[in-house]
Specification:
By secondary structure, the chain is of the alpha+beta class. The protein has four helices and seven strands, in the order E-H-H-E-E-E-H-E-H-E-E. It is globular and about 40 Å long.
Length: 159
């Protein structure tokens, strides 16, 4: 990877790139986990635009090209941030972009008074689960209700 990537809040102009990264990342996720279909693959660019307006969406970019993104929602009642649609373009993986996006998500969540973050991922994807463990998450529960073993992972900010 040449150059330095940066992280910023997503703009409406980023919607198509975010959509493309999400599709690429979740196709690979389904392939690796043996999942035939997942909600993320039915998302449209308009859905991404709506999320940019309604949620906190952050992107990593390099030379004006979006190379990764994730979305956050905040529940003030439970003081929990929910991480979703986390993905990095294939050609930019394993360069610290995912870690940087995760770090910024933590900063944003803590600044909003959140006490924990949570997310879901396929429990059998050891590489992804290890990544989340390295970021301070742990598996709180596993469910098969969506047709595959789906781990709910939690990270405590108050511990």
């Amino acid at each position: 990877m040449n150059g330095v990537f940066q992280i910023r809040m997503a703009a409406q102009d980023d919607a198509e790139a975010i959509w493309s990264i999400t599709c690429e990342a979740f196709r690979k996720y389904c392939e690796m986990a043996g999942i035939p279909d997942i909600e993320a693959l039915h998302e449209t660019v308009d859905d991404v635009r709506r999320d940019i307006e309604e949620k906190t969406v952050i992107v990593a970019y390099l030379d004006k090209t979006v190379v990764g993104s994730l979305r956050l929602t905040f529940d003030n009642d439970t003081k929990t941030a929910y991480v979703s649609r986390f993905g990095v373009s294939r050609e930019y993986r394993n360069n610290g972009i995912g870690k940087a996006l995760s770090n910024v998500a933590d900063i944003l969540a803590k600044s909003r008074g959140m006490e924990r973050a949570r997310l879901h991922t396929a429990a059998k994807l050891a590489e992804i689960v290890r990544f989340y463990y390295s970021r301070g998450f742990y598996i709180e529960s596993v469910s098969g209700e969506r047709g595959y073993l789906r781990a709910e992972m939690v990270k405590d900010y108050t511990a």
